Amino acid sequence: MTSAAASASARREPELAGQTVVLIGGSSGMGLETARRARSEGAEVILTGRDPARLKAAALEVGAKRTAVFDVNDTAAVQRFFGDLPGPIDHVMITAGGPTYGPLLEMDGDQVRESLSDHVVPTLEVARNAVGKMRPGGTLLFMGSTGGRRIGHGNGIAPAATAALPPFAAALALELAPVRVNLIAAGFVDTPLSASLLGDKLEERRAELRATLPIGRVVGPADIAALAVHIMANTALTGATYDIDGGQQFV
């Protein structure tokens, strides 16, 4: 790097200076890493989570402006949280939730309805309650999956639920404008949740991904955080789905 380039890099303004980012599910994994990244780019962060102890530790680490303990599936709690926020805020990211897998014929009607609405209903409730506090140009950002798109034995309702998310994000982007709406579709991400789910199979899964992914490594929370902050900062991005799985969907 030349001295001129180094000097220009040193003078770069933080991308989120003066902005406020709400991380729903921000006490660990992708949410916490995004909070770290947002703070490094000059933002204030507000963290929510279900585990009070873990949330407190995360808030202390990143210097959170505010915290709240609740489950995003609790509509009344979502309403209270946003109603109590002093505002204004700029960005809201939801990392909670995930696809449901299992044979279709083993699911009853309630399970099917819940699986199909697992992301859509909580995200819609967050949007409904957050939009009045959000500045124009901010973004509502939520998570989907690339692996959930695959049709196969054992995947059950997951591909149908996953397929609903991109058009949902696009339609919501039109309704919430000038607030933006975007979707991140991830593959396997090496988070504490992944570790707890895989247990002693974790290292085997990491090795498999290193050997098969085109990028030659495992996707981590920092990769998701970098993309999330870019979407927050780039005000031309709305109604879109961003795949980030290291090429996992192709292999």
Oligomer: single chain
Order of helices and strands: HEHEHEHEHHEHHEHHHE
Number of beta-strand segments: 7
CATH topology: Rossmann fold
Give the % helix: 40-55%
- The total domain count is 1
Strand order of the largest sheet: 3-2-1-4-5-6-7
- Shape type: globular
Instruction: Identify the CATH homologous superfamily.
Output: NAD(P)-binding Rossmann-like Domain
Largest sheet: 7 strands, parallel
CATH architecture: 3-Layer(aba) Sandwich
> If you compute it from the alpha carbons, what radius of gyration comes out, rounded to the nearest whole angstrom?
18 Å
- The CATH class is identified as Alpha Beta
Verbal overview:
- The protein is an alpha/beta fold and 251 residues long.
- The longest helix has 13 residues, at 221-233.
- It has a single domain (14-190, 220-242), classed as NAD(P)-binding Rossmann-like Domain (Rossmann fold, 3-Layer(aba) Sandwich).
- The chain starts with a helix and ends in a 7-residue tail after the last strand.
- The protein has helices at residues 3-10, 29-40, 52-62, 75-84, 109-117, 120-130, 158-163, 165-176, 192-198, 202-212, 221-233; strands spanning 20-24, 44-49, 66-69, 89-94, 134-145, 180-186, 241-244.
- Helix 2 (29-40) crosses helix 11 and helix 4 runs parallel beside helix 6 (120-130).
- Helices cover 44% and strands 18% of the residues.
- The protein contains eleven helices and seven strands.
